[in-house]
């Protein structure tokens, strides 16, 4: 390592700042990657300890994703005990699996013992049963019991995401006793923003925010300053539902309780932020007709995951084609129709997508429900009508001029108007209907909406032309 | 009010639970709406105080959105001082504007004096200059100065979203002094999770989380337990960038500093969650070709906001149509081509949308950058090739069988393969290029991608057919 590199990188841990390892675009800096790569090749443990081990877990995660796949395990081996396993919760699932599969179970067990329970569960839940059991067997009893209990809750439930470390005190303690307890106790969670109040059976009685404790005189009893935990989260609750509670009530953390209302853990906002991100991402990907795919998936995996919607689209495309085939005789006479017909279908598809996007989003954010559905449908129909008239006239004029035929202009204008209305109504009713029947409106809306606009577009345009000309 | 309703609704304030006012689908319960409506009509202030005033601000916001527009102001008037103005930060912008416009400025000023500064700014920033000045003039001096300063920062900046209330202490204070200060001081923020350490000029020196204070003995000096604030947020920073820092470093709150690194406020995770939601929503809406529209916008507003993309689509649709018109002679001979050509274009469009969705999302979450772009392009081309072969053969077989012509089957299969490859490459290169040139990749990708797949689809299919048959 040269003197110069030393200057750039060798700062004390407290000074880790955002621009340290990232370039202006938020990617890991290229010169940093080169240096880390060289250090791995040279087995330069000192450099890695000084410059990699000190990174924040999310920075380390980004670094792991950015280096070459074959460098990843080598770097983790070189770091040894200095490797912060939490970083693995910050990388793509595929990369995490790859790394964990190749690490010896003993090392994973040792590292997992150091993690907060929610991070430990995050890593353990992806392992196959055999490896998981082997790792759990190597953990201390209480740790093992805690993790097993969390892993017993359903996937994507609050119980899986919760942290089993928390501070809980009896209601008759005073503020002074509570503060003294926290000063003396070694085994506290790494950070927390509220403490819980429980009875001897661990039943949840309330919670106190830390600022409340700090403002209160020592002799005051906890029960007089605790607040009811308005939103204790059942461990079985889906993480998405829990996230909605956090958003709605601006929670920082919330108690997680079992079926007997006993406190089993705490769900914190940082995990919830990840859930919110994932959910938004899922909506977007589903609307685009792709599943839960990651950039690190292979070609074969990606191809396979995209086949279902392409296959559905294949059926609907032939459906639309069969509508066209009804009018072969007309097209044979007036080829201009074949030239123009995709315009009507395409514009309708676009308008339908616009309405559908707004509808899916409104359903996801609960801004649309049975009470205002009728008003929203009426509004969308109005928008369809207005834009249908505008673009009908425009397209009619252009097409009439192009083919020097006022009849064709009139027919395409009328077809356009009909299809824009159909697009508006399909764009709202299809997601609403899917939602009503318990299906995710983001998943199948696009394909149904374009089917409606294709078929309506072809039928209206070719049908009107046949009726008029033939 | 009957005895029975009383049972359902008249619970003590501490007991407000999620299922109180919502039905199973998360909408405000219909019977509750009816009762509130009746109470407004009857001017039943007691009912409203007991059942509406006690709601959480977000519940009150949902209620305001759910009742009839003409009931909203009436309810707020009846509630008087018991109306929690914060609820207005939880409703649609259009509804908020409507309500605030009709409220007398004196009442707004009185209510705003009670709010946290971030909520006050949220409401003030939408008002026109005259009303805003009139309201500000009625506030106490310090309050006015604080709000003015926040309002001076650019829209959507951290300075606008920050709270100007915070706890700051000098570094030489002990933990004991700090706790005593908090016990005695009346004017503390409503809730907080960390306190800041400043020098006499308000320059930020560090921060201490509350749990750290509670674990530390009274005689210990603050400067020995404070941590460097690794991510102080410049007040001018865009809120989206600030939100990314929160996500990356799992922050609960962060200091906001001015250009001289003096502490001016604190940004909290609950505001950041809203920003994250908004940004995800924006991406989704932009991909769907709609702007920042709200369900409460009028027909005319909505129509207008959707016109730009429909207009662009109009141009591209005619571009595609002009490709078809090149082959009019061929279509006249073989009408089957007109029937089948939308299949090639449509399937390509769908495949392109899939790739584009993944690309836009990967760019937004910074999983895709210049370093891995080449690998991702290669992978997408592979996916396009694989799915092109699969669906080419499938469609070729169906089309050949349908029109009893093996030539048509072969031609559509080849065109399909070409278009799927084009779709894959356009689906990734177009968003990447837009991003490279500083444009939002979500905004215009869809229209460009479908233009490529339409034109390629028509050209490949009709071109191959012309070359083969003519």
From TrEMBL, chains A, B:
Database matches in InterPro entries: CBS_dom (IPR000644), CBS_dom_sf (IPR046342), Mg_transptr_MgtE_intracell_dom (IPR006668), MgtE_N_sf (IPR038076), MgtE_transporter (IPR006669), SLC41_membr_dom (IPR006667), SLC41_membr_dom_sf (IPR036739)
UniProt biased composition (Basic and acidic residues): 9-22
MF annotations from Gene Ontology: magnesium ion transmembrane transporter activity; metal ion binding
Signal peptide (residue range): none
Positions of transmembrane segments: 307-327, 333-351, 383-403, 409-434, 446-469
A UniProt-annotated Pfam family: MgtE_N
GO CC terms of this entry: plasma membrane
Entry keyword Hydrolase: no
Presence of keyword Transmembrane helix: yes
Membrane topology category: Multi-pass membrane protein
Residue numbers spanned by region Disordered: 1-22
Keywords annotated in UniProt: CBS domain, Cell membrane, Magnesium, Membrane, Metal-binding, Transmembrane, Transmembrane helix, Transport
Chief location category: membrane
Subcellular location(s) of the protein: Cell membrane; Membrane
Its job: Acts as a magnesium transporter.
Family: Belongs to the SLC41A transporter family.
Subunit and interaction comment: Homodimer.
Descriptive protein name: Magnesium transporter MgtE
């Amino acid at each position: 390592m040269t003197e110069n590199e030393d200057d750039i990188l060798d700062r004390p841990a407290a000074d880790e700042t955002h621009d340290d390892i990232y370039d202006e675009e938020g990617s890991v800096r290229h010169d940093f990657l080169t240096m880390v790569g060289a250090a791995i090749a040279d087995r330069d443990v000192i450099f890695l300890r000084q410059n990699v081990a000190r990174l924040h877990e999310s920075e380390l995660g980004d670094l792991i994703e950015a280096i070459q796949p074959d460098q990843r395990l080598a770097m983790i081996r070189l770091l040894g005990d200095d490797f912060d396993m939490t970083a693995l919760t910050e990388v793509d699932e595929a990369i995490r699996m790859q790394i964990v599969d190749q690490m010896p179970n003993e090392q994973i067990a040792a590292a997992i013992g150091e993690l907060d329970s929610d991070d430990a569960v995050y890593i353990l839940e992806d392992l196959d049963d055999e490896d998981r059991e082997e790792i759990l067997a190597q953990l201390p009893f209480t740790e093992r019991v805690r993790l097993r209990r969390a892993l017993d809750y359903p996937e994507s439930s609050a119980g899986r995401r919760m942290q089993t470390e928390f501070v809980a005190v009896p209601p008759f303690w005073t503020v002074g006793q509570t503060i003294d307890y926290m000063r003396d106790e070694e085994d506290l969670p790494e950070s927390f923003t509220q403490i819980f109040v429980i009875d001897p059976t661990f039943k949840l009685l309330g919670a106190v925010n830390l600022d409340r404790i700090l403002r209160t005189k020592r002799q005051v009893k906890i029960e007089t300053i605790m607040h009811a935990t308005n939103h204790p989260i059942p461990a079985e609750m889906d993480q998405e539902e829990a996230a909605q509670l956090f958003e709605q009530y601006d929670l920082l953390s919330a108690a997680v309780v079992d079926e007997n209302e006993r406190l089993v853990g705490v769900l914190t906002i940082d995990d919830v932020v990840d859930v919110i991100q994932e959910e938004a991402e899922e909506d977007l990907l589903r609307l685009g007709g792709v599943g839960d795919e990651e950039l690190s998936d292979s070609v074969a995996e990606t191809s396979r995951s995209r086949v279902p919607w392409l296959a559905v689209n294949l059926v609907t495309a032939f459906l639309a084609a069969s509508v066209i085939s009804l009018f072969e005789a007309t097209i044979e006479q007036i080829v201009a129709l074949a030239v123009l017909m995709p315009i009507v279908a395409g514009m309708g598809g676009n308008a339908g997508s616009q309405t559908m996007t707004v509808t899916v989003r409104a359903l996801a954010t609960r801004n649309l429900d049975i009470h205002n559905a009728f008003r929203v449908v009426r509004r969308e129909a109005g928008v369809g009508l207005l834009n249908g008239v505008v673009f009908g006239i425009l397209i009619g004029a252009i097409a009439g001029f192009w083919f020097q035929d006022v009849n064709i202009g009139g027919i395409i204008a009328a077809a356009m108007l009909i299809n824009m209305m159909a697009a508006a109504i399909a764009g709202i009713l299809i997601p609403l209907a899917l939602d009503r029947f318990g299906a995710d409106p983001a998943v199948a809306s696009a394909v149904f909406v374009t089917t409606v606009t294709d078929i309506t577009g072809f039928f209206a345009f070719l049908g009107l032309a046949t009726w008029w000309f033939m």
